[in-house]
Amino acid sequence: MNLREILITTTLIVSSISPSLGQSQDQINVKELENKGEEQIDNGQWIDARDTYKELVKAYPENNEYNFLLGLSIFKSGIEREKAVDYLKKVNHKIIEESGYFYGQALLYDGQFDQAISTFKEFKPLIGDNKDGVKLRAEVNNMIRQAEDGKVISKQVNDQMRVDNLGEGINTELTEYAPVLYQDQKFLVFSATKSSSDFKGEFEVEKEADDDIYTSGYELLNDNWKERTRPEGLHIPQSVNTPQSESGINFSSDKRTFYFYRNTDLYASENGGSPVAQKVEVGDLTDADMTAIYTNKDADQRFMVAYLPESGSGGLDIFISKNEGGTWSNWKPMDGINTPYDEDSPYLAEDGTFYFSSKGHNSMGGHDLFKATEENGTWKVENLGVPINSTGNDIHLVPADDKGEIFYLASDRKGGYGNMDIYRLWTCKPIEESTINGKLLAEGKPLSANLTLANVDGEKIETIEVDNKTGDYSINVEPGKAYSLVTTAENYLNDTIAFSIPEQCVEYDLYQKIELSLQKDQDGNVIAQNTTVTNALYDIEKYRDDQSPEEFFASLPDGHRLQPDVKTSSIELDEPILLAAAQFKDVRFGFDSDEINGTAKAIVEKVGNYLNDHDKVTVKLTGHTDTKGPSWYNKMLSKRRAKSVSSALEEMGISDDRITIDFKGEEQPIVEDYDEEGNYIEEAAAKNRRVDIEVIIPEEKEMKEDKTEKSNETKEK
C-alpha cells in the first residue's frame, strides 16, 4: 500500500460511506457536498476540498470520515497545516486505517514528536509486504527517525539567528520559492505559482506546474519589499517567462548573467538579453527522470536533481558534472550527499561550501537544509539546525553575505502565509553597550543640569552632567534593558523619565531629546511643568542622510514606523513657590577638605534661606569623596563634609531635627576619577568630592498650614 493507494482508498471512502439521514433537503445538500469534495480530492484541489469538508464537519462535527477528509485536505492544502491535527485526532484509526499515516505527519509538522512516533508505530503493522509496502514502510521509518532527531535538534536553537518572513508583497497562500539575490540584498528574484488556478496544494514536485519568475526591490525607509512584479528588463528580460515553468538559479559572479531553468532545461540571459538555452548533455534521460538543472556562479559546475534508481541512492538524488578544460564530465552521483530519500535544491557557494536540502541524514521533518564541505574527497554533512530548519520543508537556501550570517530560503514552516514562503534569516550578535546622544533644553534653550540614570529597580547607575552651552549629553546603556532618568535643573522640578533600550545587533547611537517648559497663570506664577521626551531608539544615521534629526522626523508621514516616540508628562503645582526647591546644586569640596568656601558657601546660604522660608521642609545631606586614599578614611571624610554643611545650616537658624545626614565615602562616584592606566584625574575627582542636597517637601496640607502660620506671624508684627 503506497501513498497513491492511500489516496485512492480515501476516494472510495468518500463515495461509499456517509451518515444515515432521513429523506430531506439536508440529505440532498450533504450528497452534493460529498460528491463535490470527492471530485476535488480526485483532482488534487486540496484548498477547495478543505472548504467543502469544513461545511460537512460543521453539520456533523463527530463524523469519522468527514473529520478525516477535512484534516487530510487541510494538511495537503499547505495552509496552516498544523490545524489538521485537530480533526485527524478525532478519527478512529482502526476504522480508517490510512488516517494514522497522515495524522503522524501532521503531528510531526506540529512538533509533537513523541505523539508522532507512537502514531507512526501504530500505523506500521497495517502496511503490506509487497514492493510498494516495503517503500512505504521505509518512508514511515524515516519519519519516525525524523521525529527522534527532531527532539534533539529542536532543543539546540541558535538564539542569535532571527527569522523574517518577507511579507505580503512577496508571499501568498500559494507557493514562492527559489530566491536569488542580485546584490546588496536590494533586488530579489524568485519563482512562484502564477495563480490559484495553477496551484493544487502541498509542496511536491509537480511536472504539470506552471510557475513564473518574479522580482522585487527593497525599500529601506519602509523596511519592506515592494509588491512583486514580473521582470521588466532590469537585470532580467521580460521574455524570461513563457507558458512553461521557469525557476531562477543564480547570477554569475560578475552579475552580468542570470541563470534559470525552464522545465528541466538550463538557460542564461546575459546583460538582460534574450534567454539562450545552454547545452547540457543528459544522455538518455528524459524530463520524467529529471526535476531541475542548476549551475554555480562561475558556470563551471552543474548539478542535476533526478530520480535514477539504477545509479542513485534512492528517491531524488543530486548529480554533478564539471567543466574540465572545456569539456563537461559525465554526470556522477554525489556520494555522501545522497541518501535513500529525496535530496534537492543544490547550491555551491563561492567559498566551496555546498548547500542542499534532504529528507534523509538527520533531518527533522520534510526537507531540511544542510551544508557540506569536502575533505580529502569525502563530504562532511551538517544539519544547519533551528531556526534555519523547521518541522516543515525548508529548501533553496542562498547565503547573502561572506560571513555566513545572512541567508534567504523557502519554507512551508508554521506561521507563514501558506505553502512555501520566502524568508530572510540573519544573525544578531547582541551589542553589550550602546550610547544615547541626547539634548536637554528648557524653554528651548540649554541650561546647567544633571541627569541621574537608574536601573529598573531604582538603583542609581551614574549621574551625567549636561553641557550648559549646547544641552548635549551622552549616556552609556545596555541594549535590552529598562532605565529611568531623573532630570535635575535649577528652578525646575525633578522629573523621572522611563524608557527601554531595544535589542541591538549592530553598533549605532540612539537619539533622545528632553524639553522642559513651565506653564504660568495670568499673574506670571508657575502652575505646572511639562516634560516632553522624544526617543528615536534606532539607527537614525542609517536613514537621515545629511538631514538633522528634526528635519528627518518632519519629512516622515504620520504614523511612519520611523517616527520617534514622543511623550509629554505634566506636573501641576498647587504652590508655585515650591518650584525653587526642586534641586539645589551639590556642595563641592577641595581635596581632603571639609571646608565650605566660595560657590559652595553660596549654595548653602541659598538652602538655608529656603528652609527658613518654609518651616515644614526638611533636608537630607549625603557626603561623598573621590576614590583616592583608603576607603575607611574616605568614609569618615564624607561624614565630616555632611556635618560641615549641617553645621552651616544650623548657624543660619535651621534646627537639627530638620536635617538628616548620611555618608557614603567613595561608594557612589559621579564619574570615574582614574583612567585605564591608573592615572588620577583631578578634574573628574572634583565632581566626586561633594555633599548631595535633597530637599524633602511635605504633603500639600502641611505646606498650607505653614503658609497660614507665616501669614499670622506677619499680621502680629
UniProtKB/TrEMBL annotation:
<dbReference type="Pfam" id="PF07676">
    <property type="entry name" value="PD40"/>
</dbReference>
<dbReference type="InterPro" id="IPR050330">
    <property type="entry name" value="Bact_OuterMem_StrucFunc"/>
</dbReference>
<dbReference type="Pfam" id="PF00691">
    <property type="entry name" value="OmpA"/>
</dbReference>
<feature type="domain" description="OmpA-like">
    <location>
        <begin position="576"/>
        <end position="699"/>
    </location>
</feature>
<dbReference type="InterPro" id="IPR006665">
    <property type="entry name" value="OmpA-like"/>
</dbReference>
<keyword id="KW-0472">Membrane</keyword>
<dbReference type="InterPro" id="IPR006664">
    <property type="entry name" value="OMP_bac"/>
</dbReference>
<protein>
    <submittedName>
        <fullName>OmpA family protein</fullName>
    </submittedName>
</protein>
<dbReference type="InterPro" id="IPR011990">
    <property type="entry name" value="TPR-like_helical_dom_sf"/>
</dbReference>
<dbReference type="InterPro" id="IPR011659">
    <property type="entry name" value="WD40"/>
</dbReference>
<dbReference type="InterPro" id="IPR036737">
    <property type="entry name" value="OmpA-like_sf"/>
</dbReference>
<keyword id="KW-0998">Cell outer membrane</keyword>
<dbReference type="GO" id="GO:0009279">
    <property type="term" value="C:cell outer membrane"/>
</dbReference>
